[in-house]
Each structure stands twice: as C-alpha cells, then as structure tokens.
Write a structure and sequence with these properties.
The chain is 28% helix and 27% strand. It is α/β, with parallel strands linked by helices. The protein starts with 13 loop residues before the first strand and ends with a strand.
C-alpha cells in the first residue's frame, strides 16, 4: 500500500529538495529558526565516489557519506524531517508549492529550497567514469594533496586545459598535458608550459590502463601508453534543474563555458517568488565548504522572507479584528475572538486553578519508556508537563504540545525547576488544525480526550506517521468511568484497544501493534477521590526501514 501524506501550507514552511551539504546546511539553519522543514533526498550525492571530503575545516578527510549522516542527525535533532524519495514534480498551488515524489507522496510548503546539485558530463573516453572521483579528478584543491609528487596527466578538451595543467604543477613536478581534442596552445601558453617543465603530448586519448585497481597510464590512438597515476579532466557541469521545469527559474550558460546553472542572486533567490537555490545547482565551481555556506545563506533569506510574510499577515488580522470588534477595546479580547473553541475551553480549564505541584508521569508511560533508549519524544496534550518533564529527566529530548498557553507555561516552569529545560521544547497546537513537524522515536498520547468535537483518530494517525523508523506510539485511554470525569455516566461506552488500533487504518507492512491490553490500577483524581480504574493501552511500532 502506498502512503499518500499530503501536508497543508500551515504544516510546512519549507521543503528542501536535495539532501547534500547545501540542503542539509539550509535545513539545519531553518530548523534552528523554528521553521517546519522537510528534506527530500534521492540518495545520490555527487561526491559519493570520493574517499574523503577535503578543505572543509575540522572535517578534512571525512568520508562524504559520513558527513551527510552527521548532518542528517543534526537536522533531525532540531525537529527537521528527512525523507528518502525522489521528487518528480513541483507545482504552484495558490500561495504555496506542492511537491510530488516517486513514492506517491505529496507535500505542501510556503517556500522551496532546491539544492539538487549538478551532473558531471565527462569527456567521451572509455574508463573515465569508472575511475571518476578516484584517480580521475578535476579539482586540485579537492584532490591535489592526495596525488602529490606522482605523475599527473591533464586531458585537454577545451581552452581551460593549460590553466588546469599549471594548477596541478603546484602539487607535482611531473605533469603531462594531453592535447586530445583541444586546439594547440597559443605561443604564450607554450612558453608557460615549457617554463614550468610540463610535457605536452599530441594525439587523441582512447583509453586508460589500470593495474591492481589503480590507474597506471593513458593510452593514445597511436598505441603508445604514457604512465600516469592521476588524470585531471574538465567535465561539463549541468545543473540538475529538472524539478524546477514547471516553475520557470532561468537556467543560463556559465561565462567560462563550463556548463549551465540556475540563475540566482547573492542569497540564492531565483526569479520565481518563493523559490531559492543553493550549492552547485547555482554555483558550478563551489566546493563543499562553499555549498554549506550557500545553504545557510539561502535559509537565512528564506526565514527573513517568511518573517516578513508572517508579520504582514499578523498586521492584517489585527486591523481586521479592530474593525470587526470596535466595541472590544483591549488586545486580549481581540485575541480571544480569533482563538479556537478548544483553546478557549482548555485555557479556562487550566487558568481556573493554581498550578498542581510538579506533576507525576503516567505509570504506563514510565514503565514503557524505561525499557527504551532515550531519543526524541513528542508528548501530545502535555497538560502541566508531568510526563514531558519525567521523559526529559530520563534523557529524552521532548517536544511538549498543548493548546493551552497556561499549561505550556507551567510545563516550562516544571522543566526549569527539574533542571531539564535544555531538553524540553514546548509548542502550542490545536491538534484539530495543526500538528507538530518532525519525526520522533516516541510519541505519547496519554488520555487524549476532550468533551469537544475532535478528530481523534485522524490526530492519532498523524502521530503514527510522525514516528521515525523503529519508533513507538504509546496511546493510553480511559477504559472505565472515573468518578471525577466530565461525564461520570456508568453506561459510558469505551472503545476497546483493538477498536482504537483498527481505527488508525495503518498499513500492516509499515506499522504493527506491539500491545493491546486493559490493565487496572488504583488512581487518585484531581479532587482527591480514589478509584480502581481500567486503562486501555495501545502501543504501535513503526517498522524499521
């Protein structure tokens, strides 16, 4: 069964297409700016053949995939989401963008950051692609140190070959320029090559010699073989701009004739409103460090653009509220007029009584969480924070969600008093309308009940989809009447754990129920009364990818 997971504009601020260094750097900046951000990546990094990233301060020599793994962990650590999929189309829908993927998903976002990189089109010589990123190179700053003092060949396919040969001469005294398909150097260039001791070989290159899985020489059409241990080439760089074809950003030819790129300003903003680019898709020559910087720069510009939009919308609402409610003169009253029914109900509930101690966790949650390795947790309907603070105190990074500002402020106070504020984040949501962004190792829904109309099954289904692979959704419901309940009718019907799980309509190939049971316990209500109560426990595990 294919998952169709369509987000609305309120859920995602930014979709980042491409999860390389530029995309992850942009996503990290946006997540730290408290923006909801999703990175969609097909898992095809341009530098995958290389043994290490070089010239990136404090990360020199790190394998490219290890750098990306660490980057993904940092992004998700701030609440960003990363999805392995391929974007097939992007289209505008009113004031936002809809991103469709090969896996059948669709996502909406207010802004788009494209960091899809480029494609290296190599010269038509047999064997180049197989050795690309190993002994077949193009950038001396990326790979020159690794081939220093060895025989280096430079394959000439255009006017930049002499410059490339002079650059590589800095790393080795043994450099040979193979003229191949390029025109002969001009007189001044011949003088430069001779002065630097760079040999020049005429004739077309037809292949490579390899011994013990290492480049050993270049074969010419004449049959001669010239020994080299590395071969520098100049690919043509073509921006991967296919996902932008339906939106219209302009792709232009580089002034040096080395390829094409998506045109943008200094911040990565394209000529299409709401669309930014970063990394090699717009800067063909940039290395890893430059790509990372461009991702940060584009993300900062996107956040500033969103701040301006949010501010304009807030001003519009304020003016509208003043015009529509002239008989209400204080700001608090106008704010209340725009609040939801759930917000008003729960705000009255929590503000009608004083703070209740420091809170204690639900015993089922505590028992289950003790057996898990701490990670990222989401507490839905956190109340005054008993569960969230307990989880944070046991090593979890917790996002605590409630519709009541009073409840959240008390959660923050509890977390500060417990010394776990650095592991506790609060977000205000009416879950009937919006849902927290991010993926989580544990999602807790403890007694997520309300006397108001509430799309409970839909919210719990979103909670299941917010699980990281291997993550656990723990739902604990009332299974018997509490004497302190809103409606203590003994004839109240409670759905069974099996009914609740079936109502989530989850794909059994991706989720499975680990626990469906009805434990009984002694409980004390807020009014001090005690009773034997039954809980309904539903534990749902997202299968590991």
């Amino acid at each position: 069964m294919t998952e169709m997971n369509t987000r609305n504009v309120a859920d995602l601020d930014v979709v980042v297409v491409g999860g390389g260094v530029a995309g992850l750097s942009g996503a990290l900046t946006l997540a730290r700016a408290r923006r909801s951000v999703l990175v969609i990546d097909s898992g095809e990094p341009r530098n995958a053949p290389a043994s290490g990233v070089h010239g990136f301060l404090s990360h020199d020599g790190l394998p490219p995939r290890e750098l990306l793994r660490a980057g993904r962990e940092e992004v998700t650590g701030y609440g960003g989401r990363i999805m392995s999929d391929r974007v097939t189309a992007v289209r505008r829908a009113d004031e936002h963008f809809v991103v469709d993927t090969e896996g059948g998903r669709s996502w909406s976002a207010r802004r788009l950051l494209v960091t899809t990189g480029l494609v290296d089109e190599l010269p038509d010589v047999p064997g180049l692609r197989e050795r690309w990123g190993r002994e077949v190179l193009h950038c001396p700053y990326c790979h020159g140190w690794e081939v220093r003092d060895t025989p280096i060949g430079v394959l000439a396919t255009g006017p930049g070959a002499v410059h490339q040969a002079l650059l590589f001469r800095q790393w080795s005294p043994d450099v040979t320029l193979f003229l191949h398909t390029a025109d002969d150097p001009v007189e001044e260039q011949w003088e430069q090559l001779a002065a630097r001791g760079i040999a020049v070989v005429d004739g077309r290159v037809v292949g490579l010699d390899v011994a013990d899985d290492r480049l050993s020489g270049v074969r010419l059409a004449s049959g001669a073989c010239v020994p080299v241990r590395a071969l520098a080439v100049r690919p043509r760089f073509e921006a991967r701009d296919g996902v932008l074809s339906g939106l219209g950003p302009k792709t232009v030819e580089h002034p040096l004739g080395v390829g094409s790129y998506v045109e943008s300003d200094g911040s990565g903003r394209t000529g299409v409103a709401g669309v930014w680019v970063a990394g090699n898709v717009t800067d063909l020559m940039g290395g890893v460090a430059v790509a990372a910087a461009s991702g940060v720069q584009a993300a900062s510009a996107i956040n500033a653009d969103l701040v301006a939009a949010d501010t304009a919308a807030a001003v519009g609402r304020r003016v509208s509220g003043m015009n529509d409610s002239t008989h209400h003169t204080n700001r608090h009253t106008r704010r209340t007029n725009h609040s939801t029914e759930a917000e008003r109900f729960w705000e009255r509930h929590y503000s009608s009584h004083e703070r209740v101690g420091k809170g204690t966790p639900n015993p089922v949650l505590a028992d289950v969480a003790r057996a898990l390795s701490p990670g990222d947790a989401l507490d839905l309907g956190c109340g005054e924070g008993g569960d969230a603070v307990w989880l944070a105190a046991h090593g979890w990074r917790v996002t605590a969600v409630d519709v009541s500002a009073t409840a959240l402020s008390r959660t923050v106070v509890h977390g500060t008093e417990a010394g776990v504020a650095e592991r506790l984040t609060t977000e205000r949501h009416d879950l009937a309308r919006t849902f927290p962004a991010g993926t989580f190792d544990l999602v807790s829904a403890q007694y997520l009940h309300t006397p108001l109309d509430f799309p409970r099954s839909g919210v719990l289904r979103k909670a299941a989809h917010a699980l990281a692979p291997g993550g656990l959704l723990l739902i604990v419901d009332h299974g018997s009447v509490r004497p302190w309940a809103w409606n203590p009718d003994p004839h109240t019907h409670f759905p069974t754990p099996e009914d609740i799980y079936d109502g989530l309509a989850l794909d059994p190939d991706r989720w499975h129920a680990e626990r469906l049971d009805r434990p009984r316990r002694q409980a004390t209500g807020p009014d001090g009364r005690t009773a034997t109560v039954t809980d309904h426990v539903i534990a749902v595990r997202r299968r590991a990818a």
